[in-house]
Amino acid sequence: MTATVSVLPIWKKDSTAAEWLQEVAGIAMAHPERFARIVVVADEENKDGYTYKQRWYGRKHVTNTDVVAALETCKLEVWEYMKGRRE
Q1: In this model, does residue 42 exceed pLDDT 80?
Q2: How far apart are CA 87 and CA 82, in angstroms?
Q3: Second label for 84, Cα 20 to 30 Å away, from 22, 48, 74, 78?
Q4: Residue 81 region, left (φ>0) first, then alpha (ψ -120 to 50), else beta?
């Protein structure tokens, strides 16, 4: 079996949130079929560098159930990744 990489995000050190989102947008443009729903979670920091608020952003007309389902599914994927079962 041969695999090819068509889109690979380049996560630069000290990149901005806008640059992170541009990388994900590039993947979405190259492979729109991969994206059923999108939820973005962000920690906002105050001037001292401490997190003071978490916000989430989702598409228009996404239900609360859709958001929670996406977050819970992603949480499970993160745990599997941390256990070494996912790459």
Answers
A1: yes
A2: 9
A3: 22
A4: alpha
Whole-angstrom Cα distance, residue 4 to residue 71?
29
Residue 29 has what pLDDT? 92
- The tokens 């070494």 sit on which residue? 84
Amino acid identity, position 76 = L
Q: Closest by alpha carbon to 6, among 37, 38, 22, 29?
A: 29
> Mapping DSSP to helix (H, G, I), strand (E, B) and coil, where does residue 45 land?
strand
Q: Return the residue matching tokens 């609360």.
A: 64
Average pLDDT over residues 11-39: 87
Average pLDDT of the residues in 65-73: 89
Residues 21, 38: Cα–Cα separation, whole Å: 12
State the pLDDT confidence band at 86, using cuts at 50, 70 and 90. low
Q: What is the pLDDT of residue 50?
A: 84
Contact predicate 51/45, CB 8 Å? yes
